[in-house]
């Protein structure tokens, strides 16, 4: 079972590196990237879950309509990706539901920062996918957290997949920088161990970041970005489909998990 997702946010990474970058610029990058990755998903006839910020939804309603019309799930990713607030849980849900005209059941905090589960539940979410159970210097130290889905305060936690034992993260940066054969091998090994695979990417990864030195992007982020990343995503999806795996939305996975509990 494959839980493929995209953190559909306004591109703000240059701001982390001291670049004055406007919301308008960030939206232009992310909108182009979203259309590119949607083309890959459509060509392969697979579904994904799009965790959308309120900013993205309000500034690109036509993209949200395409996401919904092509059969994908929408979920929430805060309001302003650069400055997440404790009040974002409810406001994000209100915005994304209004724009998408869909009921939203899931949440992911920007940059996978911690959240208060009781607030997630109070806002009406069924699941939270804000945990990367790995050690990533400068970002996460979650080596003692569960690797696989678990309940916490009445909300299903859906961690991003990491390999068994050494907990190597299999998220977006891994596909950017590892040899594809190695990445595919680790994904298959994790699937055999866990029975499911949870991963996430961002629309701006599918933009030609290498053509914009003014963004001051680190090599590990812009490596294999743009069309090369479209090709890598396409080959990953094809490999998983060839192996007979089913792509499901996070809500569908959550409902199946709760039904068994």
Structure explained in plain terms:
It is globular and about 50 Å long. Helix 2 packs parallel to helix 10 (227-242). It is of the alpha/beta class. The strands form 3 sheets. Strands 3-2-1-10 form a 4-stranded parallel β-sheet. It has a 4-stranded mixed β-sheet with strand order 4-5-9-8. A two-stranded antiparallel ribbon has the order 6-7. Helices cover 43% and strands 13% of the residues. The protein has 11 helices and 10 strands.
Task: Describe this protein with a few key phrases.
alpha/beta, 4-stranded parallel beta sheet, 13% strand, 261 residues, 43% helix
Give a summary of the structure in a few sentences.
With 261 residues, this protein is an alpha/beta fold. The protein has helices spanning 13-16, 23-44, 54-59, 61-69, 88-100, 117-122, 172-177, 180-194, 219-222, 227-242, 250-260; strands at residues 2-8, 49-52, 73-76, 106-107, 127-128, 135-136, 140-141, 150-152, 155-157, 197-201.
């Amino acid at each position: 079972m494959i839980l493929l997702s995209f953190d559909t946010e306004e591109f703000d990474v240059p701001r982390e590196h001291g670049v004055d970058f406007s919301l308008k610029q960030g939206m232009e990058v992310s909108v182009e990237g979203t259309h590119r990755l949607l083309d890959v998903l459509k060509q392969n006839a697979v579904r994904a879950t799009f965790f959308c910020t309120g900013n993205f939804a309000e500034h690109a309603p036509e993209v949200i309509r395409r996401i919904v019309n092509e059969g994908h799930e929408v979920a929430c990713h805060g309001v302003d990706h650069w400055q997440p607030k404790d009040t974002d849980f409810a406001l994000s849900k209100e915005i994304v539901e209004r724009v998408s005209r869909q009921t939203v059941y899931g949440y992911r905090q920007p940059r996978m920062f911690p959240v208060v589960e009781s607030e997630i539940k109070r806002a009406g979410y069924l699941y939270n996918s804000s945990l990367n159970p790995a050690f990533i210097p400068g970002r996460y130290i979650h080596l003692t957290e569960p690797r696989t889905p678990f309940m916490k305060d009445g909300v299903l936690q859906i961690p991003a997949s990491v390999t068994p034992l050494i907990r190597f993260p299999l998220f977006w940066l891994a596909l950017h920088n590892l040899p594809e054969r190695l990445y595919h091998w680790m994904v298959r090994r994790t699937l055999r161990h866990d029975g499911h695979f949870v991963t996430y990417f961002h629309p701006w990864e599918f933009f030609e970041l290498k053509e914009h030195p003014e963004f001051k992007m680190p090599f590990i982020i812009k490596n294999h970005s743009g069309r090369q990343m479209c090709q890598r995503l396409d080959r990953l999806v094809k490999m998983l489909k060839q192996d007979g795996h089913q792509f499901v939305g996070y809500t569908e996975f959550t409902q199946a998990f709760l039904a068994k509990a």
